[in-house]
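[09:14] KT: can someone run the structure on this one? pasting the chain below
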Amino acid sequence: MWIILKVHKNKILTLKNEFFDKLGKDVKFYEPKLKLKKFLKSKIYIKESFLLDDYLLCFHKDFIKSSALTSLKYCKGLKYFLTDFITSQNEIESFILKCKENEDKEGYIKHTFFNFNNNNNKYEFISGPFTNFIFRILEENKLSIKALIGNNKVLVSKEQNLFRPV
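[09:31] RB: done, structure tokens below
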């Protein structure tokens, strides 16, 4: 059974070790990551970021028992468990499957994870040389997007940039 944990970012390793000590080695953790490229002062900086920020997905067969969760309640690094995880198992598994399908060989989430269906069709670049620019999608194909930034039309590769709806 999967649970969702809210954690202190700087204590994740301690938290994982406590879970292993209390539950054994059959605990699985999943934390989808993004690799962001920022263009700043003519240099490209690469930053690793967690897709779920300070949330962590954790699987163990004994999470169905409330006693297992009670024993983990005061682990170092844990803020709290999200409630209603029992009824949300299908959604959690579906999310994890979508993340894993869209991971590259290094384990980072690829651009294909993000769905470009947006009613107002406005997006913002979150990495690359156009960082923080807002654009509209004019055309889209498998490899690239024809975008309108201000009055300028540009062709942007989907592989190199990440965007988000505005």
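[09:33] KT: thanks! Helices lie at 12-23, 66-72, 89-101.
[09:34] RB: yep, looked fine to me
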